[in-house]
Specification:
This protein is mainly beta. It is built from one helix and twelve strands; from the N terminus they run E-E-E-E-E-E-E-E-E-E-H-E-E. A hairpin with a 5-residue loop joins strand 6 and strand 7. It starts with a strand and ends with a strand.
Length: 124
């Protein structure tokens, strides 16, 4: 099983922007879709966004218009561009195989493990 590798994140002030990336060799070429989740301290894990290999996207309401998910098939990488960041966006962000957006969820789950998590901190 290949682990998804996350990069990006960090600390910004309110209104700032950050980009998260998640990649693994063969992820998109195996028609695996991706979910981004986040978990803030003391809160439950929250779904943030998803993308399919066909380019279909979805977002949770609090991030619509501020976050953009995209994919680069040449590098098997999914990006989550985050702008107009707010303190409520502070959380650890995780990427993983999407159950709803993957062509063959079982195969994708067998091939790829979830990302290691990336801290995003937004200060007021």
């Amino acid at each position: 099983k290949v682990q998804l590798v996350q990069s990006g994140g960090g600390s910004v002030q309110t209104g700032g922007s950050l980009r998260l990336s998640c990649t693994a060799p063969g992820f998109l070429s195996n028609n695996c879709g991706m979910d981004w989740y986040r978990q803030a301290p003391g809160k439950q894990r929250e779904w943030v966004s998803s993308i399919s290999t066909h380019g279909a996207t979805a977002y949770t309401d609090p991030v619509k218009g501020r976050f953009t998910i995209s994919q680069d098939k040449d590098t098997d990488t999914v990006h989550l561009e985050m702008s107009s960041l707010e303190p409520d966006d502070t959380a650890v962000y995780f990427c993983e195989t999407s159950r709803a957006f993957s062509v063959d969820v079982r195969r994708c789950k067998e091939l790829f493990g979830g990302g290691q998590g990336t801290q995003v901190t937004v200060s007021s």
